Amino acid sequence: MFAMIRSCGWWIYIVYLPIFAIQNGLGEQLGGILLSVTNGMLFAAPLILRWVQGRSLRSAVRIGFAAAGLCFGLAGALANWPVVTVAALVLGSIWLIVLDICAGLPFLMAVKPSERTEMSAIYSSYRDVSGILTPGVASVVLLFAPVAGVFAAGGLAMFAAWSIAARLHPRLGRPRKAFQPGALAEPEAA
Asked: Which stretches in the chain have pLDDT values below 70?
């Protein structure tokens, strides 16, 4: 679910940001330029990984979805200010990069290490699902709202993922405490 919603966010960013920019007179080149800038931000992945490792996986995933959802929601709400909308989406893409780093880990950690190879084929099906789901939902949204409505719908989906992520175990991704002999021993009577 996390991977699919994150991928839907990328579809929205890659497809509907350039359409929005052209519709609002920001230029035909802006979408491509911003996609290149966002791809360049992937070089910050080691720094982002350090940020992720400084907290629990549940916290990192929840912060990532909440921040991306807020950015996409603001982009939908502030569509009357196209420059602000585009800036919100670019900021949201940074949080999508955070989610690229950490949101797939709960699935992989739930699978036995010996089964990860087989399960990776199932995990990668999120691409196909998001590639069908995003334009399907967007076409329904576009019947009733402008392109900015797609941004708002993406924000709502990310808040749904934020809510689901609350159910992740709080210590997921943290190293187990080392077993200490005698830690389970009965205290001696005085």
From this structure: 171-190
